[in-house]
Amino acid sequence: MYPAYPAPSAKAVELYASLVDFLRTEVFPAEKAYEEYREQAGPGDHTLPPVVEELKTKAKARGLWNLFLPAESGLTQLEYAPLAELTGWSTEIAPEALNCQAPDTGNMELLHLIGTPDQQKEWLEPLLDGSIRSAFAMTEPAVASSDATNIETRIERDGDHYVINGRKWWISGAADPRCRVLIVMGKTDPTGPTHRQQTMVIVPVDTPGVAIERSLPVFGRQDQHGHCVLTLTDVRVPVTNVLGEEGGGFAAAQMRLGPGRIHHVMRALGAGERALALMVARAQNRVAFGKPLAEQGAVRERIAESRIELEQARALCHKAAFVIDSEGNRAARHLVSAAKVAVPRAVLSVIDRAIQLHGAAGVSDVTPLAALYARHRAMRIFDGPDEVHLGTLARRELGGEPLFTF
Ligand SMILES: Cc1cc2nc3c(=O)[nH]c(=O)nc-3n(C[C@H](O)[C@H](O)[C@H](O)COP(=O)(O)OP(=O)(O)OC[C@H]3O[C@@H](n4cnc5c(N)ncnc54)[C@H](O)[C@@H]3O)c2cc1C
User: From atom 1 of ligand 1, which residue's Cα is the shortest distance away?
Assistant: First the structure.
């Protein structure tokens, strides 16, 4: 199919201008206070720096709120892409300031799509309001979790309750004291058909038997909302807490990961743009061997290569977004996989060049580059390691009909 993208709506264009202004006047100036709060609180602290709550109030007042969810914002994924990208320029603060942060966005999407009216009232409404946070608990230390059929957590029916036992890790967001709810993936029918064994269940964090052990660092750095190891021991929740249908967990995970993945990718482009902007500024201002670095041919080439890689990656991301809009998540699956591989690769290579150009400053905490590198390196593993996405793409190519045969 030849893609002819629709022009963005006037609303999307307006929101873009408003978000540029919000970043310039509110978000970037808040970064110092954010970092200072976290530094003073120490790595074991997972409370939200108060400056972000202030930004949330301001963003809401400007209508920059819940832009990720088409049913709330009226935006297509293609229209949302440049907005999400802008939030990636300040990836620790801006997504949450707009209530567009992972993992809550994926959880809100799921609750929106398959939650019952009661589940939506209890959990979706406060999440959309930004008054609580949530986590998605699938990955387990004991099994290769890139293959979701391996998940071993047991969800057993006992009358009108489920009893859940299992051990999870890398559960993002669970360390944040505002996290009230987990969406837990486990097996209700371990001997059933491979893709019908899994079920998702809503588990309030304060349910007896939920124990959050610790938050894991990413390349030695603790993220604000944390990535937790947790155990579920005889956790009892009513059967009405099933999300979707029993046996529908695998399909729901696929549903959740479609828009969730592409939103990660969109934000990553903003991080890449920030790294390139830092690289350009450094090249212009740093003098070595008698001239600015920007006058060195090798440096100029790295800047140009970075621009090419970001534009290529963006084109792929936007095409995936367009196909989600026009043909649905399923039809876009291979493009989302392609973007999920290509964008972090491109962004990492730009960040790596920016680090190199900054010398020792690049690997310290005086620029955001080292933290950006860690986050985007991890992205090549979370929401499906590269190899799994490459497998999806290869399967499609090998099973498809070429346009011409020779
Ligand atoms: C920062 C961060 C945040 C995360 N947040 C969450 C979260 O909120 N909730 C959650 O449930 N999980 C989360 N995860 C976990 C993440 O989704 C998993 O780590 C990921 O799915 C891979 O699973 P695994 O770690 O068990 O790796 P494994 O499945 O053991 O895979 C290890 C490696 O094996 C290789 N491999 C796997 N399959 C193939 C294949 N088919 N072909 C070739 N090679 C292959 C790949 O190199 C892969 O990286 C997060 C992880 C990180 C790092």
Answer: 378
Tell me whether residue 313 is in a domain.
Answer: yes
Q: Are strands 198-204 and 242-243 parallel, antiparallel or unpaired?
A: antiparallel
Do 235 and 155 reside in the same domain of the chain? yes
Ligand 1, residues 91, 169, 170, 337: which to mutate, most atoms within 8 A of Cβ?
170
Last residue of a domain, one of 129, 155, 186: 129
- Dist CA 194 CA 171 (whole Å): 24
Q: Is residue 5 part of a domain?
A: no
Atom of ligand 1 nearest to the CA of 388: 41
Answering whether pTM is above 0.90, one says yes
Answer with the one of 107, 129, 151 that is the final residue of a domain: 129
| 132 in Cβ contact with 181 (< 8 Å) | yes
pLDDT in tens, 96-134: 999 999 999 999 999 999 999 999 999 999 999 999 999
Q: Using one digit for the tens of pLDDT, what is the confidence trace for 53-70?
A: 999 999 999 999 999 999
CA of 337 to the centre of ligand 1 (A): 14
- CA dist 314 and 349 (Å) reads 14
Is the CB of 183 within 6 Å of ligand 1? no
HSE of 170, CA atoms in CB hemisphere, 13 A: 15
**In Å, how far are 159, 201, 264, 392 from 378, measured between CA atoms?**
41, 27, 12, 20
Would you say the CB of residue 90 lies under 6 angstroms from ligand 1?
no
For residue 188, give its domain range. Answer: 133-247
385 CA distance to ligand 1 middle (Å): 6
